[in-house]
Design brief:
The protein has nine helices and ten strands. With 332 residues, it is α/β, with parallel strands linked by helices. An eight-stranded mixed beta sheet has the order 3-2-1-6-7-8-9-10, sandwiched between helices. Helix 2 crosses helix 8, helix 4 packs parallel to helix 5 and helix 5 runs parallel beside helix 6. The radius of gyration is 18 Å and the shape is globular.
């Protein structure tokens, strides 16, 4: 462990004073989209606090470069890289199977894998033209929501072996652009990039709240929270799978976005709070300039994001689309 990880001012709005992450010695964390942006900064801080971090990345080479940067910053960091493409449910299944069999996964009293923290962070933002996952889902809904829906469910047994498991799902202020048609987010018809992205981020938030309701109803110890980074400069703006697929945006936008947004380090702070301290079912984000930046605290949820009936329907739709049912433990 590289000493307690300094995150200056990160929790000021919530706790009343700047503080550091508490030690996370030996806890096992999986962070999706960990090779850059919010995911990399979250992974680094968790590793610096003593967690054993799995960097789940679509591109193994970039993932290894990310891991090398973490180790350069903290030589005794315990990090490893695993391939995970959330746009492929086959890849999701392979990753989950690999985690279960990995010798460096956390182990319970009978040698079964334990996962203490899952950060559902990876995402695709606003490709200019409709694109699809391997299974034919609209790319943003399929990657940002359905991939994480299945991943969380497949890792649920390992999570429930932890004494205090947490799942953090990264949403966005863009969830306010989503609509009730989130239930048909994979439908054909007119494609509006911003609305489709908003629907995927609304789905993230509905999933996080729905997961908390289900675990609480079963008396399970799992805490599900959500967070958003505000407006932070990350690789989403240059990602060729997303908005960066449009050449002029990829080349011209980054310098202007960098000037108008906060850093990825600052954007990671709400996620780190959600991963360590936030209350079950909460939503954390920056508090200033329309929640685009600043100290963190409770984030505003749209009326749709607070709709429990919509959350239940989305869960059912997600099960039907993916064919996946959560392996809830038997009562008692």
């Amino acid at each position: 462990m590289c000493g307690m990880s300094p995150v200056p001012g990160s929790f000021t709005a919530v706790t009343g004073s700047a503080r550091q992450l508490a030690p996370l010695d030996g806890r096992v964390a999986v962070v999706t989209g960990a090779n850059s942006g919010i995911g990399w900064h979250v992974s680094r801080e968790l590793a610096r606090s003593g967690a054993r971090v799995v960097l789940a990345c679509r591109d193994l080479a970039r993932g290894q470069q990310a891991a090398d940067r973490i180790v350069a910053d903290c030589p005794d960091a315990d990090v490893r890289v695993e391939e995970l493409d959330l746009a492929s449910l086959d890849s999701v299944r392979q990753f989950a199977a690999g985690f279960v069999s990995a010798p460096s996964a956390g182990a319970g009293t009978v040698g079964e894998p334990v996962l203490d923290l899952l950060i559902n962070n990876a995402g695709v933002m606003a490709p200019p033209r409709r694109a699809f996952t391997r299974e034919g889902f609209e790319l943003q809904f399929g990657t940002n929501h359905l991939g994480h829906f299945v991943l969380t469910g497949m890792l649920l047994p390992a999570l429930l072996r932890s004494p205090a498991p947490r799942v953090v799902t990264v949403s966005s202020i863009a969830h306010h652009y989503g609509g009730a048609d989130v239930l048909a987010a994979n439908a054909s018809g007119r494609y509006r990039p911003r609305h489709a992205y908003g629907n995927s981020k609304l789905a993230n938030l509905l999933f996080a709240i729905g997961l908390q309701h289900r675990t609480s109803a079963r008396g399970l110890p799992l805490t599900s929270t959500a967070a958003h980074p505000g407006v932070a400069y990350t690789g989403l703006f240059s990602d060729p799978q997303g908005i960066g697929k449009f050449g002029p945006v990829r080349w011209v936008a980054p310098p202007f976005v960098r000037m108008a947004s906060q850093s990825a380090t600052a954007g990671a702070r709400p996620v780190l709070y959600a991963a360590t301290e936030a209350a079950p079912g909460s939503f954390t984000g920056p508090q200033r300039m329309g929640e685009s930046r600043g100290p963190i605290g409770p984030a505003r949820m749209s009326a749709l994001a607070r709709d429990e009936a919509l959350a239940r329907h989305l869960w059912e739709v997600s099960e039907d689309l993916t064919g996946f049912r959560y392996p809830w433990p038997a009562a008692g």
